[in-house]
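thread: overnight batch results

M.L. [08:02]
morning all. the overnight job finished for the chain we discussed friday. pasting input first so we're all looking at the same thing
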Amino acid sequence: MNTSPQPPDPWTLTLRGKPKPGQVATRKRRTGPRDVEMFSEMTGDRNPLHNDPVLAARAPFGGLIVQGGVTSGLLNAVVAEDLPGPGSVFLGVEWRFVKAVRVGEEITAEVEVTSVRDDKPIATLRTTVRDAQGSACLTGTAVTWTAPLRETGGASG
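M.L. [08:03]
and the structure it wrote out:
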């Protein structure tokens, strides 16, 4: 008989609790010129594929496309706000950008929990961003860690 105490479930201190494999969360957003402007201003990425309509029209994409960071950024919102939820950050990602996203396109980011650790608030997610026609633009996986933000019930000062 094992009489040693069980370690506490680290997920109990997270705001949303422990996710379950198979759980899914999505967010939609229409991209726009302001996304490109803000991302360019923030990062210095002024690639003509994102900023020069004349040059972008001659490229294989046929027009302006948003930066990959704009596309993947919607996944940041899903992870931080929905699943696993507040306090979650990426530990690692493996993403393939399989289709460009045109400025003005609506995209949907989806995460699905594929596994959850019991010893730490770490989850592995399948990640996808699709365009309005349902074609994958980004595919891959991500590993997240969720900070223990719930109060433990001790006295606050």
